[in-house]
């Protein structure tokens, strides 16, 4: 696996790096008297359109990204109230398949309802729909934009609840050499490094690596531990390489390769999981009169998981491998249609293909009782058009998207230990067209006040995991459902952005969203659930944001109140009016930072997550939790600085799972110390 990953990165980066020295020099390097074309290299996509302020978007800059107490990207994203994973665990102490990302309390299962992209490439696993958070190192990022609410732009079929767009940092930001080394009181370590040379022609390359390992903490409370209880051990690494080279004054080529491998243990000895992957992408961006953004990507992923009995503490299920592939791309064109308009015409495509292999064991004898195999192929072809029209202080925007989605080749086969088929299902192929839209505008009442309103719709295809793969979190088994329909969201929102004084800004958004055919894990018996389409999930609420800066002091805050409930009829009538699983009513985050002089940085972050329910029946409660994190950086010499980080300083008991009183816990008080280098 490691050799394949290194080969992938080298094949992506090296050819572009070799091209760089022979490219024409930038204008400032031209001989006297000779005119040369100015080459500007950004490493980004096309510029934001004037209608972007119409959306409920929160932007996290690099300073906020690299000062998280845990050093993990999910900790950074938690600064945006309304962001949530399926569970409250981070990517050190959760099962990878539970790392679904959503917004606005539209949770209910572990699949992502929000579109997470890195440099324009969707990051969700082709089979499961979870996001490999441990592979997305914060120190490699420049900017994160979180847009809450459905979207119909590029890859809009995945942006049901919104989009999270991550941009990689360039060489000028990183410096030639940067990195960090950290250790905590449990002896766990975190190592990261970046090498970012700049080419003579204005291009650059970035080669990055990160390795995290540790014995972990006990997720099981002390009074529930048994001899088989294990700490949440983790060992993960990721590597990436990126090159950006100019092909002319307004066209640049971007190439990126990434590989990762992640191993974890959860709850019991032998309950091990792993996830691994390799990604590659090529992107061509043109910033001339006819602007364009062409992208192609490929992904290879795998997942394994061993389920251990909570009564006999022996393996009962070995989900030994789940290889999957994802391919896709997009082409967006922005023709010159006048200074008052920004017209976007685009097409994108995504295909996911994967297979599950698992073996079931008898808990008494340890012998295999069944071998199972399941899989299929999903695809989506989308066409979109969107325009932003500037009329003085008013900017109007409207977009339309048509998706041809297909679900094909689905099957489930179960064999006995002798290899004889005991159950075989081949599911019908199906395909259909879906049309989504968004429209609205922003009115700048004054330079300090903007009013905005948006309406939108969006869709999400069920994942291969939801369609074909049953799973067990002992003792609860959740069945797959090959008849699941696409989810569809419709909603609207109104809001305002106000600057009350220099450095003092507030945002307010009120929204009402409905997801029809929402996929949830529905209880159908004791310790038995099935993925089913509910008639709907309704979510309405208010989101607040505040930023206050005065000299070296700064406060950034975010609050979300969401009233979410399921709509149930017929077989799901019992769920009507209940809150979706894992969906908090209240979420808030506030960070106070102090920078007395360059290089010095102190920050404290207070977060509160309201209570949630473990399941659709609201029987087991995960009570509310309030945590305090801290960060400090003090410069030393030679580009080095000392870094202190503290997670959950109050040592709050954070319950992440509650199944009939059997609970898992989140990160306890954790103190980190280390050094950071930036040259």
Written description of the protein model:
- This protein has one domain: Maltoporin, Chain A, CATH 2.40.170.
- The protein has 5 helices and 39 strands.
- The strands form 6 sheets. It has a 24-stranded antiparallel beta sheet that branches. A 5-stranded mixed beta sheet has the order 1-6-7-4-5.
- The longest helix has 18 residues, at 2-19.
> Mind telling me which CATH architecture this is?
Beta Barrel
What global shape is seen?
Answer: globular
Supply the CATH superfamily name.
TonB-dependent receptor, beta-barrel domain
Number of domains: 1
The CATH topology corresponds to Maltoporin, Chain A
As a percent range, the share of helical residues equals under 10%
Please outline the major beta sheet: 24 strands, antiparallel
Rounded mean pLDDT is 91
Distance between the termini: 32 Å
Total helices: the number is 5
- How big a fraction of the residues is strand? over 45%
The rounded Rg comes to 25 Å
- The total count of strands amounts to 39
Low-pLDDT sequence parts: 8-36
Top CATH class: Mainly Beta
Structural class: mainly beta
């Amino acid at each position: 696996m490691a050799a394949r990953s290194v080969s992938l990165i080298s094949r992506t980066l090296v050819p572009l790096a070799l091209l760089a020295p022979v490219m024409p020099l930038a204008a400032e390097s031209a001989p006297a008297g000779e005119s040369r074309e100015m080459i500007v290299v950004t490493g980004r996509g096309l510029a934001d359109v004037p209608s972007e302020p119409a959306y409920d978007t929160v932007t996290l800059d690099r300073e906020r990204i690299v000062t998280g107490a845990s050093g993990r990207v999910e900790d950074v994203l938690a600064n945006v109230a309304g962001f949530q994973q399926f569970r409250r665990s981070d990517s050190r102490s959760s099962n990878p398949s539970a790392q679904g990302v959503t917004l606005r309390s539209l949770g209910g299962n572990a699949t992502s309802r929000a579109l997470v992209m890195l440099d324009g490439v969707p990051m969700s696993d082709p089979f499961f729909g979870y996001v490999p958070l441990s592979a997305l190192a914060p120190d490699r990022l420049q900017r994160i934009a979180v847009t809450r609410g459905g979207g119909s732009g590029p890859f809009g079929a995945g942006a049901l609840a919104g989009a999270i767009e991550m941009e990689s940092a360039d060489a000028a930001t990183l410096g030639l050499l940067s990195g960090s080394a950290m250790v905590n009181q449990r002896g766990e370590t975190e190592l990261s490094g970046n090498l970012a040379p700049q080419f003579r022609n204005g291009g650059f390359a970035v080669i990055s690596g990160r390795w995290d390992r540790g014995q972990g903490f006990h997720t099981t409370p002390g009074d529930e531990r048994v001899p088989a209880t294990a700490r949440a051990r983790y060992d993960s690494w990721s590597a990436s390489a990126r090159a950006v080279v100019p092909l002319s004054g307004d066209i640049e080529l971007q190439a990126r390769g990434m590989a990762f491998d992640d191993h974890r243990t959860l709850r019991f000895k032998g309950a091990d999981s792993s996830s691994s992957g390799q990604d590659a992408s090529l992107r061509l961006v043109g910033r001339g009169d006819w602007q364009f953004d062409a992208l192609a990507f490929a992904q290879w992923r795998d997942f394994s998981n061993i389920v251990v009995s909570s009564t006999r503490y022996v393996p009962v299920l070995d989900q030994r491998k789940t290889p999957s592939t994802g391919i896709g791309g997009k082409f967006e064109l922005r023709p010159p249609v006048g200074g008052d308009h920004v017209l976007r015409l685009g097409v994108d495509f995504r295909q996911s293909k994967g297979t599950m292999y698992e073996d079931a064991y008898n808990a008494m004898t340890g012998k295999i009782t069944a071998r199972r195999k399941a899989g299929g192929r999903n695809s989506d072809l989308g066409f979109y058009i969107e325009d932003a029209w500037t009329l003085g202080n008013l900017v109007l925007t409207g977009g339309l998207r048509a998706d041809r989605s297909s679900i094909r080749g689905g099957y489930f086969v179960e064999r006995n230990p002798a290899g004889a088929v005991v159950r075989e299902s081949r599911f019908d192929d199906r395909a259909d067209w879906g049309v989504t839209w968004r429209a609205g505008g922003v009115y700048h009442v004054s330079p300090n006040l903007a009013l905005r309103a948006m309406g939108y719709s969006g869709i999400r295809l069920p994942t291969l995991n939801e369609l074909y793969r049953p799973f067990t979190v002992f003792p609860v088994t959740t069945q797959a459902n090959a008849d699941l329909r696409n989810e569809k969201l419709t909603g609207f929102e109104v809001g305002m952005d106000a600057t009350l004084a220099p450095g003092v800004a507030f945002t307010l958004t009120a929204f009402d969203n409905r997801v029809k055919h929402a996929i949830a894990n529905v209880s159908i018996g004791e310790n038995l659930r099935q993925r089913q389409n509910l008639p709907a999930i309704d979510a309405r609420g208010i989101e607040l944001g505040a930023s206050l800066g005065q000299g070296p002091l700064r406060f950034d805050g975010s609050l979300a109140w969401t009233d979410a409930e399921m709509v149930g009829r017929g077989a799901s009538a019992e769920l009507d009016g209940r809150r979706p699983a894992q969906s908090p009513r209240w979420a808030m985050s506030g960070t106070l930072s102090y920078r007395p002089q360059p290089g010095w940085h102190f920050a404290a972050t207070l977060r509160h997550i309201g209570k949630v329910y473990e399941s659709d029946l609201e029987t087991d409660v995960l009570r509310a939790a309030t945590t305090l994190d801290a960060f400090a950086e003090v410069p030393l010499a030679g580009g080095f600085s000392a870094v202190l980080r503290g997670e959950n300083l109050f040592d709050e008991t954070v319950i992440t799972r509650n199944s009939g009183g059997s609970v898992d816990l989140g990160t306890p008080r954790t103190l980190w110390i280390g050094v950071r280098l930036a040259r």
